[in-house]
Amino acid sequence: MARYELTQFASVRAILRNRWPQLVLQLVAVAGLLLVLLAALVGTPVGSRNFGVVAVWIGWWAVLMILAVPAAGRGWCAICPLPLPGEWLQRRSLLGPQGPAFGLGLRWPRRLRNLWPQNVIFAAVAVVSAVVLTQPRLTGLVLAGLILAAIAVSLVFERRSFCRYLCPVGGFIGLYAQAAPIGIRVKDTTVCASHREKTCYTGSDQGYGCPWQVYPGALARNSACGLCLECLRTCPHDNVAVVLRTPGSDLSGSSRRGLDEAFKGFLMLGSAAVYAAVMLGPWGALKSAAAAIGAWSWAGYAAGLLLFAFSVLPGTFLGAVLLGRRVSPSAASLRHVFSSLSAALVPLGLSAWVAFSLAFALVNLSYLWPALSDPMGWGWDLLGTAGVAWTPYLSSAVPGVQAMLLLGGLGWSAWVAVRMGRALNGDERIAWPVVGWCVLMTVGLLWLLVG
Amino acid sequence: MSRSTWSRIRRGLRREAPAVALGLAGALVAFLPGLGTSAAPVERSLRVEASRYAYAPGVITVNAGDHVTLELVATDVVHGIYLDGYDLQVTADPGQTARLSFVADRPGTFRFRCSVTCGPLHPFMIGKLRVGGGPFLWRWAGMAIVAALAGVWGARRWRATS
């Protein structure tokens, strides 16, 4: 795969190694989070007038899903304010290493070193999201809960265990970061092999050992790399690089995928489809059910979402995989073929989320201007934009762009499936039914989002 | 031009033939006029009831060219309609009827959405206007198949060149 080292330039390397630019961005993000929390918890209860709701679910979400994840993968994780209080407490420092870590420093339990906890937490948030997205207090409570959980985990477990194994946002950013054109990789693995101290993992006076508990010398995929740049600082041989590479390079490699990652793909694709139906569809009963938390109708909605994401999608996908194995018998186990071919879910899922977010964000973006001028909804007009009326942006163009995104994502998924099929079996025919499955899924998404 | 140049061009065309064919197929599926019956335009008056957080009916279908009047009736609080694609809007007070008239001269599917904050789920209060009964689903299916074939061809091509 083609790759281009951004850190070959001394100036880029110097900026990325310097802790101050990253800290400034982190402090800006923390200040933004504090304002969001304040507005969400004590501001107006009207969601479309509350800075907390508008900034998080329209501003931040749009930037994250439409720009940050597709372009920079886990770049957001490098400045995300949610784990920072816990991390600063654990490190006893805002900048470089200051001695031993504070807290118990336990290793994350072996049984939980996978994506299942993140899948469960994301699913738990997903079934109440119609309410969380619109109710400022709930938005504030969810964010405060995540911050407190991150602090607690930082004091008990080592490094960024919360981000790596629990954060529901980090889980799907990691999945889609595999499609991103940017990543961290070592230049020469033999240098890593001969480096006995492995300071990229253990840390040195120049920086921390990988907070994401990844050994950069063996880093082959973006999923778990938080782009925190510590390995760039701790490598004494200047053997770590930030690279531009062919987007989606991680998706057709031979590295093993687990069922947890496959189900992360189903959960994300399934929730994108359900959100499109609930938030952009014409079915009032579905919206009411999604918002009636605790009622039987909500229980039916939640069960439907979970069944669709964890049973219908994987079940039909399994059918496609079985058909592929019939067309082209493979010596690889069914589990391995299933997990490997699930890489095809990543481009389609990412394009579905971008298409969904585009419609949601552009229609509601104009709520941001009054919310910026009157963050609490208390009648202020700090920027003179408090009276700006709601105006949907580019509503004529959005459906066409959504269709192009979904069709592009499908083409990319077919590309990934065929390459993965060849890597598995030396024969692309094993992937053909999965390509057909992606076609059907895309037609469904087009119907929900554009039709 | 020499014989070898012609030969190179022929080889190139042969190599790119699938891409050209896929491009043509995609354009054909995307821009081919609808196969549905094109009914003569009529005057059409439709009553749309708005209550939190849905319109009834939620999906409205008209023929291309129809002169449409939407009679919006808000049954609980103030609601509005903003029609995507046509950039038209109207607001109705509770119990009142507001009218929105337009010529449905743009075929396709358009969302209409509440334009007045009416409660927590207000951003999700959406309906659909279908203009023309064209075979949209078949068109998407056709375009999806073309996109998938393009991906398969791309993977084969990638292998051949790398």
Commentary on this structure:
The complex is a heterodimer of chains A (451) and B (162). Chain A has 2 domains: 3-179, no CATH class; 263-449, no CATH class. Chain A contains 20 helices and 5 strands. Chain A has helices at 10-17, 19-42, 51-72, 84-91, 116-126, 129-132, 136-156, 161-165, 168-177, 189-194, 199-202, 230-234, 259-280, 284-291, 296-327, 334-341, 345-364, 368-373, 398-425, 432-449; strands at residues 3-5, 182-186, 203-204, 207-208, 240-245. Chain A has a 3-stranded antiparallel beta sheet with strand order 1-5-2, with no helix packed on it. In chain A, helix 2 (19-42) runs antiparallel to helix 3, helix 13 (259-280) packs across helix 15 (296-327) and helix 13 (259-280) packs parallel to helix 17 (345-364). Chain A is globular, with a radius of gyration of 22 Å. With 162 residues, chain B is α+β, with helices and mostly antiparallel strands. Chain B contains 2 helices and 9 strands, in the order H-E-E-E-E-E-E-E-E-E-H. Chain B has helices spanning 3-31, 136-161; strands spanning 43-51, 54-56, 59-62, 67-74, 79-83, 88-92, 97-103, 108-113, 126-131. Classes of the chains: A mainly alpha (451), B alpha+beta (162). The interface between A and B is large, with 53 and 44 residues.
What labels would you give this structure?
heterodimer, A: 451 residues, mainly alpha, three-stranded antiparallel β-sheet, two-stranded antiparallel sheet, 20 helices, globular, B: 162 residues, alpha+beta, five-stranded mixed β-sheet, four-stranded mixed β-sheet, 2 helices, 33% strand
Layout of helices and strands:
The complex is a heterodimer of chains A (451) and B (162).
Chain A: E1 3-5, H1 10-17, H2 19-42, H3 51-72, H4 84-91, H5 116-126, H6 129-132, H7 136-156, H8 161-165, H9 168-177, E2 182-186, H10 189-194, H11 199-202, E3 203-204, E4 207-208, H12 230-234, E5 240-245, H13 259-280, H14 284-291, H15 296-327, H16 334-341, H17 345-364, H18 368-373, H19 398-425, H20 432-449
Antiparallel strand pairs in A: 1-5, 2-5, 3-4
Chain B: H1 3-31, E1 43-51, E2 54-56, E3 59-62, E4 67-74, E5 79-83, E6 88-92, E7 97-103, E8 108-113, E9 126-131, H2 136-161
Parallel strand pairs in B: 1-4, 3-9
Antiparallel strand pairs in B: 1-2, 4-7, 5-6, 5-8, 8-9
Helix pairs in contact in B: 1-2
